[in-house]
Amino acid sequence: MNIWSYIFRRILYVIPVILGVCFIIFFIFNVCAPDPAQSLLGKHATLQQMEEVRRELGLNKPYWEQYIDIVKSAFTFDFGRSWQTKQEIIEMIKLGAVPSMTMTVPAFVISTILAIIISLMVSFFRGSALDRVTVITCVALMSIPSLAYILFGQWFFAYELGLFEISGYESGFPYFVPYIILPVTIWVFLAIGPDVRFFRTVMLDEVYQDYVRTARAKGLSEKKILFKHILKNAMIPIITYVIIQIPFLILGALLLESFFSIPGLGAMTITAVNASDFPVIKAMTVLSAVAYIIFTIITDVLYTVVDPRIRLK
N or C: which end of the chain has fewer CB within 10 A? Predict the structure, then answer.
């Protein structure tokens, strides 16, 4: 099948998926959640005040109209205004996306490349002391809660040693760089453990395949076998693992942004949750779902790029 026909067909499949996701979001926020008017006005509000707020927020509409509004926002990205700040939500998202990506993209790229290099190295020296020490270190890194990394990093490296900014953010390159070094470093330490363990398992699965034995029998060097054959055949699970994480980069890192006062989408989401700002929470939920679906399609297409034997049907 032609790649463009495949993409077109997958985009058509996305429509019922988004409708289903919108229905779940509608059910959670508009049916199961407590009355937003009461949350905004407090327990001393009069019935008249609550009715006015419900009318202003569109909560007095029939349920089917409220569901249509959510579906419309998923396709047009017109999420209305924030209840708390009264700003257009799409403008808030545009403003927050840049600080989020200045932190998440370099952290993601560094941790992924580092993890692939380490996993290739330990698969080459599999069963050795280096392999065992790497696995134990990865498990130790994964066992420490993310909050402990953040608090220790802020106290020791930023407060005691004064090596990094303890929190804050300035827009524009290179002004933001001093503020993202510590959160990026913490992100790398948080991600490197699970990434190395996953990539190592994938590499070891390939190391024991017949084609690797054949390549060795032909006299190819270990370096060539490792980088040209094993890494290439391990790319499909690696692509699946890596691409699916990309939508979450756009949406920011909740804890890191919150603790380091980075005005990104993660911090915006936490503020919206604390303030019961349902339109912002709904917008971030819809965006997450749409981004996840889009990157799933990209993953499928990339399979054919790294392995031409895969046919799109």
Answer: C
Looking up tokens 């200045």, which residue turns up?
A: 102
pLDDT digits (tens, 9 = 90+) for 171-215: 888 889 999 999 999 999 999 999 999 999 998 888 888 888 888
- Quick one: average pLDDT of 156-183? 90
Greatest Cα pair distance in the chain: 84
Write the CA distances from 183 to 36, 101, 196, 248, 281, integer angstroms: 34, 12, 20, 16, 24
DSSP run (H or E) holding 266: helix 265-274
Q: What is the torsion angle, in degrees rounded to the nearest 10, for the CA atoms of residue 33, residue 36, residue 39 and residue 43?
A: -100
**How far apart are the C-alpha atoms of 207 and 226, rounded to whole Å?**
8
Helices 89-124 and 278-306, axial angle in degrees (round to 10): 40
**Cα–Cα distance, 205 to 231 (Å, whole number):** 11
The per-residue pLDDT for 266 is 85
**Residue 130 in tokens:** 């280096």
3's CB contacts (< 8 A; 6+ apart) are 301, 304, 312
pTM above 0.90, yes or no: no
Rounded Cα distance, 226 and 220, in Å: 10
- The crossing angle, in degrees rounded to 10, of helices 89-124 and 129-143 is 150
Q: Is 276 a residue whose pLDDT tops 80?
A: no
